[in-house]
Amino acid sequence: MNAVRRRWRVGLTGGIGSGKSTVGGMLQDLGATLVDTDAIAHTITAAGGAAMPALRETFGDMVVGQDGALDRAQMRALVFANPDAKRRLEAILHPLIGHIAQQQAEAAPGVVVFDVPLLAESSAWRARCDRLLVVDCSVAVQIERVVARSGWAESQVRHVIAQQASRERRRAIADAMIHNEGLSLASLQSQVANLWQHWLGVPPPEPPPGL
Ligand code: ADP
């Protein structure tokens, strides 16, 4: 069988500003199909999205904006005020995201890269992947990049970082890690290309029964 036709599933994660999306784009350029779980989350919470009926039923009309999409500010306020709301929100979103991601992966011809910000937190997600790739850099560099990219205040970036898995926790799950700091985009690209060749050079493992 042609190695590129093998259905490798790579889980990609990294903290905000680590360069995860940049690496995802590079993997895509190398021929992978990128399944972006954040993009799926946005689609299902847009007007007419698959999650909207359950969100309205669970949290009421207040979480639905005038345009019919999820009112993220209201939802954030609810989650902030009531920890159980977060659990209920995730109970609606996560299975739908998992299902759609799986459908997208099944429709893909070759290597699938799941871009999953919460990979370190989710054993269910890790079980779907043959290999886990973590993009890492220091907090100082994360802040510098997100301030430059998105114009956020430093405190806002720190707040998001505090909500995410720690670097140690992500490192602990990694089969491979790219330390994306002090690297030009060209060097980053060549590390990604090396990794791609290395991983495709050997056959993917048999998936555990039932997956
Ligand atoms: P994430 O998806 O992890 O939040 P991005 O991939 O969007 O992060 O990267 C954050 C910003 O940093 C982007 O503007 C990206 O172009 C830039 N960036 C990432 N890695 C590098 C690098 N090695 N050299 C230069 N800029 C980089």
Explain how this protein is built.
- The protein is of the alpha/beta class and 211 residues long.
- The protein has one domain: P-loop containing nucleotide triphosphate hydrolases (Rossmann fold, 3-Layer(aba) Sandwich), CATH 3.40.50.300.
- The chain is 53% helix and 11% strand.
- The protein has ten helices and five strands, in the order E-H-E-H-H-H-H-E-H-E-H-H-H-E-H.
- A five-stranded parallel beta sheet has the order 2-3-1-4-5, sandwiched between helices.
- Helix 2 (37-44) crosses helix 5 (83-107) and helix 3 packs antiparallel against helix 5 (83-107).
- The relative contact order is 0.21.
- Mean pLDDT is 92; it is low at 1-5.
- Bound molecules: adenosine-5'-diphosphate.
What separation lies between the terminal Cα atoms? 21 Å
Strands ordered across the widest β-sheet = 2-3-1-4-5
CATH topology: the name is Rossmann fold
Order of helices and strands: EHEHHHHEHEHHHEH
Biggest pleated-sheet summary:
5 strands, parallel
Small ligands present? adenosine-5'-diphosphate
How many H/I helices? 10
Q: Count the beta strands.
A: 5
Estimate the strand proportion.
5-15%
Nearest-angstrom radius of gyration? 18 Å
Mean pLDDT: 92
CATH architecture classification: 3-Layer(aba) Sandwich
Tell me, what is the CATH class?
A: Alpha Beta
Overall geometry comes to globular
Helical residue percent band = 40-55%
Q: State the CATH superfamily name.
A: P-loop containing nucleotide triphosphate hydrolases
Question: Structural class given helices, strands, pairing?
Answer: alpha/beta
